[in-house]
Write a structure and sequence with these properties.
Blueprint lengths: L1 H22 L8 E7 L6 H8 L2 H4 L2 E7 L3 H10 L4 E4 L3 H8 L3 E6 L1 E2 L7 E6 H5 L12 E4 L5 H12 L8 E4 L3 H9 L5 E5 H10 L2 E6 L11 E5 H4 L2 H23 L5 H12 L8 H10 L3 E2 L7 H13 L9 H4 L9
Parallel strand pairs: 1-2, 1-3, 7-8
Antiparallel strand pairs: 3-11, 4-11, 5-12, 6-9, 6-10
Helix pairs in contact: 2-11, 4-5, 9-13, 11-12, 12-13
C-alpha cells in the first residue's frame, strides 16, 4: 500500500502539471492519432461526449471511434493495435490477452450503484407467461450471452448463485452480438437476459419482455465496464494520462446531467442530442432522450476502479477454467493511473 500511495502522489502531481500546461492552451503533444473502441450503448456516453465536445482534442489527441458489438472483439483489437483504448466489460478473452502481456486494465467506468437504475433482468414475454416471473425460477430456462466469459455470463452466474440454482441448470445461448440477443429475446428464442436499462426499457415498452429482477440486488458494487489499453500505451504516461483527463471531464458532464440531475435543462438536452447521434438513432430524438435518461447508470468519477469487483470477476474466470490460474493483479491491472475504490 505504501508504494501505491507514493505512486498516486507522483501521478496526481504530474497530471496537475499537465493540466496547467493545457490551461495555457498548449497540450503536451498535438494531433496524436488514437483509436477508441466503443459500442452503441449508453455506457459509452463519456466516449461520445469527450469526442464531440473536443475534450480529446484539447489534450492533443486526434481520436477516431471504432465500433464493436461485443467486449471480446474489442479486447482483440486493443491487443493487435487496431484500437488504442477501450471501455467495455472484462471478458475471459481480455484476461487471456493480459496474460500474454498485450493489454492492461487501467481504470473503471460503468458501475452498479444501489438507488441508481442499472442492468435489469428480463424474461421474454413468452417465458414470463409460461411462469418465469422471478429470478428464482430461472432453472430449466435459457439465457442469452454474447460469448462465454462475457459480462452477461458473469451476471447470470451471480444471479444463479444467489438463488441457489446450479448454473448447469440454465442453458446459456452464446449469440455473439448484442443485436442478436435483443432479437432472440424479442421473439422468445431465449427465455432471459440481463442488459443496461436504456436497452431494457425499449424491450419492456414494446411488450417483448418483462422485468423479473435488478442486477444490483445481486452484485451491488459491480464494476460493469473497465477502461483498458495495450501494455505499450499503459507505458506511455503522457498519452494515457491525457486520454484519462479528457474522458474524466466527459464523465463529470454525464453524471451531472443524467445521474445526479444537477445540470440545467439545456445541458441535459445538449448531452441527449450528442448521445442520440450514436445511440437509438432510429428513434425520435425526444423518445431517445427519455429512454437514455431513465436508463442512466453511474460512471465512476475520474475512472476510479472498484478493485474488489474486478478481482471477483478474475477469480470467477479462474474457477471456471477460462483463464490460467496463475494470472494475478499485477499481470491484469495497472493501478497507477486512477483511484482504487
Amino acid at each position: 500500500m505504501t508504494n501505491f500511495t507514493l505512486n498516486r502522489r507522483h501521478i496526481l502531481a504530474g497530471m496537475g502539471a499537465a493540466g496547467a500546461v493545457a490551461a495555457f492552451g498548449r497540450p503536451a503533444f498535438a494531433n496524436t492519432k488514437v483509436n477508441l473502441g466503443v459500442t452503441r450503448l449508453a455506457s459509452h456516453a463519456p466516449s461520445y461526449l469527450a469526442f464531440e465536445r473536443g475534450y480529446f482534442k484539447d489534450e492533443g489527441l486526434d481520436v477516431e471511434l471504432k465500433f464493436f458489438e461485443a467486449a471480446q472483439p474489442m479486447a482483440v483489437a486493443i491487443a493487435s493495435g487496431d484500437a488504442d483504448y477501450g471501455v467495455t466489460a472484462m471478458s475471459g478473452g481480455l484476461v487471456s490477452l493480459a496474460e500474454k502481456g498485450a493489454v492492461k486494465v487501467i481504470g473503471g467506468a460503468l458501475a452498479e450503484e444501489k438507488g441508481v437504475v442499472g442492468n435489469l433482468l428480463l424474461a421474454s414475454t413468452k417465458a414470463y407467461d409460461a411462469g418465469l416471473t422471478s429470478a428464482d425460477k430461472l432453472g430449466g430456462h435459457s439465457f442469452g450471452i454474447t460469448t462465454a466469459g462475457s459480462s452477461f455470463h458473469y451476471m447470470i452466474h451471480k444471479i444463479a448463485q444467489a438463488n441457489n440454482i446450479p448454473l448447469s441448470e440454465i442453458t446459456l445461448r452464446p449469440l455473439q452480438k448484442l443485436g442478436a440477443v435483443v432479437g432472440a429475446l424479442s421473439t422468445g428464442q431465449i427465455d432471459a437476459w440481463t442488459i443496461q436499462a436504456n436497452v431494457a426499457n425499449k424491450l419492456l415498452a414494446s411488450g417483448a419482455a418483462k422485468q423479473i429482477g435488478v442486477v444490483s440486488d445481486y452484485i451491488p458494487t459491480y464494476q460493469v465496464t473497465t477502461v483498458f489499453t495495450s501494455t505499450k500505451n499503459a507505458g506511455d504516461r503522457a498519452k494515457t494520462e491525457a486520454f484519462l483527463r479528457a474522458y474524466s471531464k466527459a464523465i463529470d458532464d454525464y453524471n451531472a446531467a443524467f445521474v445526479d440531475k444537477t445540470a440545467g435543462a439545456d445541458e441535459v438536452d445538449a448531452i441527449a442530442a450528442i448521445m442520440h447521434k450514436y445511440i437509438d438513432m432510429d428513434a425520435p430524438a425526444e423518445e431517445a432522450k427519455e429512454t437514455l435518461i431513465s436508463g442512466a447508470m453511474r460512471v465512476n468519477k475520474n475512472c476510479a476502479l472498484a478493485l474488489s469487483s474486478v478481482e471477483d470477476q478474475l477469480n470467477w474466470f479462474k474457477s471456471e477454467g477460462m483463464v490460467n490460474k496463475d494470472i494475478n493483479n499485477e499481470i491484469l491491472f495497472d493501478t497507477s493511473y486512477v483511484e482504487i475504490i
